[in-house]
Structures are given as structure tokens and as C-alpha cells.
Amino acid sequence: MYNQGRIIKRLLGRSDADITNDSSLDTTSSPNPQAYRPKASQNAFYPSTAPISCVDRTPDGHLAVLGGRHILKLIRVEGSNIKDGVDVRSAIISQLANRGSEHLSIKDVKLATNHVGEPVIFTACANGRVFSYDVNRLASGLGLEYSLICEGARQVNKLDFNPHRGTWMLAGGQDGSVRCFDINAPVPGRTGPTFRILQMMKNNSDPIRDLKWAPKDGMVFACGTESGAIAKWDIRKASMPVMRINAHDPQKGVSSLSWHPDGDHVISAGLDGKCYVWDLSKNAEKRQKAKWTINAPAPVTSVSWRPGLWSATAQGRRAAQVAVAYDDGSGLKNGITSVHIWDLARPTMPYKEIEVFENSPNALLWQDRDLIWAVGQKGFKQCDVAFAPKVMDRRPVSSLDFSPRGEVLMFLEERLKPKWPDAQHQP
């Protein structure tokens, strides 16, 4: 049995003084220091007439792109104010006519910058194609200009951009392969300008559900598959993965991945209702057990480490919280549309609960350490986690239960003896 104290300390960072209130965290020794924290909640809502399935943002967090089968547009987020931006879907429909349908079956979307620093939208589609769109050209009224990056036979599920080499993009999908493109310089293609493939990794025809570049190594990425496996790849060794772990129920698969900021650990989520933390460092054991486990109350569709904030329940300030969204496809059974913030120092109960959704979100994205974006059936919501209620504070303070033999076990809240006024005790 592994040493939980040693692993959690290594996993979650250096210890310091404890913190118990998120809204009081104006300054910390976090690797991502944040400026003054507003004393009022920064919750915001942007309604949509079409379901949103994916979201991405620019590094400064002010420009976001919303994607789905019936939506592809930009919005600008300034604090709690959200403004409309360029509607790319309308431009596709108006300018491409009958050919526009192949652009609109969107499964994932990314917002990046090209070689001259201008924003570009990238979409992964169900027909196996990946497109890019020049945002500035549309905003200037010059019309739609796009590039066909990838043309495959099966659906592309996920895209991700390298945090160190910003022009390297991963694309993974149902054919089990992961392609790495360099979008720095377009090259001539069969149907127009496209981008060259740097490397291709084949995952034994096991469909890719999610993939993420490592935060500290620009050559390494992790992917989760439909069979429940997690694979660590180095694009310099494309013949086989560096490490492969059978992480989740093969009948349920991996639904989401997120790297810890230390670059050594990954948390995986699955439709089996589990979240596991794995060691993917250079010295990690090939055959390992999960370092930490969260038993979620429903199938998990999205998981993401909370950036730059420390654990509020551990004996120290440790980056140890994750946001989790659930699958409400069986809503009558599970009935969970909330987003939970879990703290690994207390993996048996959520730390905070955000209850502002009619339907469970399709995707989550942290804007900063306190603001999380959630997209779904009704639109885009910005939720201020610092002001979200703690689950512990909502639990009953007293409880009892009976054993099969008639014994009773009871827990009661400890109350201080009331102090009566002296006048009541006078004869």
C-alpha cells in the first residue's frame, strides 16, 4: 500500500499555512499570482438558441469561441459583461451555400493565433475534417477564408495546441490516430491551402476521446481512449506510446483528461463514475495503481484541475482541486446537473457545488483560478467559484442509524452551554 501522505505532498506541492476561505484569497504564493479579487460575485450568463458543445479562449481570457452543431461564434468577456462577436456560422451558411453543411458538424473548437499573431478558429468535425477560419478577415468584412487541414474518413473528436510550440496542433478521433500539424506556414493542398503533418501516432484503432499536451514538456502528450486506456506519447517516438495504463472500465471509456501543473500527473475521468490521478513522470511505474481516486455520484463527462489555487482542507496550500461535470443523459436516475469542485484532501465529498444549471454542462474551461466557464443546452455561463457554497456547510449536523440487531448509533452537534443572564439566577 502506498504512502498517502508522501504521495499527496509530492502530487500537490509544497506545504504552507492553511487557507479556509476562497473569497479571502486576495494574494497567495501561488505560481499564478492574481490581482485584486472583487468582493462581489462575477457570475454571468450568455443565452444561446442552440446547444453549445465546446468552448475555448485566448490566453488573456477575454475572447471566447463557442462551438456546436448549430453555433460557431465569438464572444468577448470583460468581467461580468459579455458581448457578441463575429458569427462565423452565419458567414459559412451565406457564402458556402450547399457546401456549408460539411463545416457545421462541430465536435471541438480551438482559438489560436497564426504566424502574424492574428486570431484563428480551428474546428474538428464529425465528417473527419479539420478547418481553420481567419477571424480578422471576417471582422473586417472581407468575407470568409478557410483552410482544410485534415480530411479523414472518421470523426475527429478533439484538438489541442502545444503550450510551448504554439503552432503545433494535435487532432485525434475515431480512427484511433493522433496527427500533429504545424500551422505556422500553409502549404498547397488538393482543395486549397493546408498545413503539413509533423507526425502521426496510431493507437491500435482505439478511438481517441480526449487528448492534452503536457504543460512542461513540449514533446509529450496524453490521450484517453474509448476502451478506457490512457497513453503517454512522445512525438519523437511515434511507433508506440511511452506508457499505457488500463485506467477505466473498457465498456465506459475515458471521457476527459487534465494534466496537473507539475507536468507529472494526469487526472482521468470516465463514464464509470471514477476520477483517477496517475503518475506519468519519467520515473513512473509501468504497472501502477491510481495515486488518488474520486468516486463521483454519476458518470463524469469533464474534469479539469483548478489553476493557481491551493487546497482549502489539506494541511497546507496545495494545488489540489478539480472541477467535475456529469452526464445527465440518465437524469431521472442520477438527477445531477451541478458542477462539483472536488478537493483531493477530502475525496469522499465534493468541496463546493455550483447549482445554476438546468442541464449538465457539455464542457468546462477555467478562465482563471476563481471563474469557470460552462457551456450547454441553454448557453454560456461564467460561474464564480469563490462565492459558491461549500457542500459541508449544507450537511445535517446530526444523524443516527440502526444496526440489524437493534443498536443505534447517533451523532449530535456539540453545542455550548447557554449563558443565562445573572438576573434569572437571583432569588
Which descriptors would you attach to this protein?
single chain, 427 residues, mainly beta, Methylamine Dehydrogenase, Chain H, four-stranded antiparallel beta sheet, 30 strands, globular
Low-confidence spans: pLDDT under 50, at least 5 residues?
A: 13-21, 23-34
Q: For the record, what CATH class applies?
A: Mainly Beta
Question: Approximately what portion of the residues adopt beta-strand conformation?
Answer: 35-45%
Number of E strands? 30
The total domain count is: 1
Mean pLDDT: 83
Rounded Rg: 24 Å
Distance between the termini: 65 Å
Main pleated sheet: 4 strands, antiparallel
CATH topology, by name, is Methylamine Dehydrogenase, Chain H
CATH architecture: 7 Propeller
Count, helices:
5
Query: What is the molecular shape?
Result: globular
Main β-sheet, spatial strand arrangement: 1-28-27-26
CATH superfamily caption? YVTN repeat-like/Quinoprotein amine dehydrogenase
Structural class: mainly beta
In a nutshell, what does this entry contain?
The protein has 427 residues and is mainly beta. The protein has helices at residues 4-12, 88-96, 135-139, 331-334, 391-394, and strands at residues 44-47, 54-57, 63-68, 71-78, 81-87, 106-113, 119-125, 129-134, 146-151, 156-161, 168-173, 177-189, 192-202, 208-213, 220-225, 229-234, 243-246, 254-259, 265-270, 274-279, 292-295, 300-305, 321-326, 339-343, 352-354, 363-366, 371-375, 379-384, 399-402, 408-411.
